[in-house]
Amino acid sequence: MDYSDIMIFMMEMIGTIAFASSGAMLAIQKEMDLFGVCVLGVTTSVGGGLIRDLILGRTPPGMFRKPVYTLVALGVSVLLFFLLYVNHNFLKGKVAVAYDRIMMIFDAVGLGIFTCVGINTGWESGYQQKFLLVFLGVVTGVGGGLLRDIMAQVKPYILTKHVYACASIAGALVCVLSGEWLGRLGAMVSGAAAVMLIRFLAAYYRWNLPRIRR
After folding, report:
1. What residues contact 94, with CB distance under 8 A and at least 6 apart?
2. What is the C-alpha separation between 148 and 157, in angstroms, rounded?
3. What integer best gives the mean pLDDT of the chain?
4. How confident is the model at residue 103 (pLDDT cuts 50, 70, 90)?
5. How far apart are CA 214 and CA 211, in angstroms?
6. Which of 141, 139, 146, 151 is CA-nearest to residue 11?
7. 83: closest CA among 99, 67, 68?
8. How far apart are CA 76 and CA 27, in angstroms?
9. pTM of the entire structure?
10. Are 117 and 15 in contact (CB under 8 A)?
11. Does the pLDDT value for residue 54 go beyond 80?
């Protein structure tokens, strides 16, 4: 591995841990058992990549060819379960507010990183069409969270909360358009930072797209 490959691998690991934590925490909040926590943690972290690889015709998908990401997500889910298992009061009272903020941070970090990881996978596969690359980035970023919410029987986060998918689209555009002069790694860092910045600002200022209320 050269320097850029190492940095990209580290970004993937951070994103995997962040999304696995997000999925596991939602499962714990929904009072699922250990198996359910593991399933939701793994699904959130590798689900988007699974959809991306199926679109690209990469079989078997990366989660099976490089199981390190799946194993890390599984380990994070188990660790979180047992940390909270011994502290039943963690999700009660004032700590619930901190929980919501931690979840938002995990989700923003995972979304930013995996959006750009999806684009990088498209580059590695030899694709240069900007629309396709942006689509791959967004699917990788939001796919796992969408599967997580469906499995947890909650309204999908990407359809309701703080310009979630729009942040992924904006970051994907930054990554794709800056790739020619910043290089692959620089574009990925810039795109991920753009996604996280938009998510944090949207959460702080409660930005939302227009909607029709009853």
Report:
1. none
2. 9
3. 90
4. confident
5. 10
6. 141
7. 99
8. 13
9. 0.90
10. yes
11. yes
pLDDT band at 100; cut points 50, 70, 90: confident
Tell me, what amino acid is at 144? Answer: G
Can you read off the two tokens belonging to residue 56? 């690209």
Rounded to 10 degrees, what is the CA torsion of 186, 187, 192, 198? Answer: 120
Task: State the pLDDT at residue 72.
Answer: 97
Give yes or no for a contact between 116 and 191, defined as CB atoms under 8 angstroms apart: yes
Spatial separation of the C-alpha atoms in residues 140 and 88, rounded to whole Å: 33
Q: Is the peptide bond before 60 cis (omega within 30 degrees of 0)?
A: yes
HSE-up of residue 29 (Cα within 13 Å, Cβ side): 20
Contacts of 174 (CB under 8 A, 6+ apart): 187, 190, 191, 194
**Spatial CA neighbour of 139 closest among 115, 105, 175:** 115
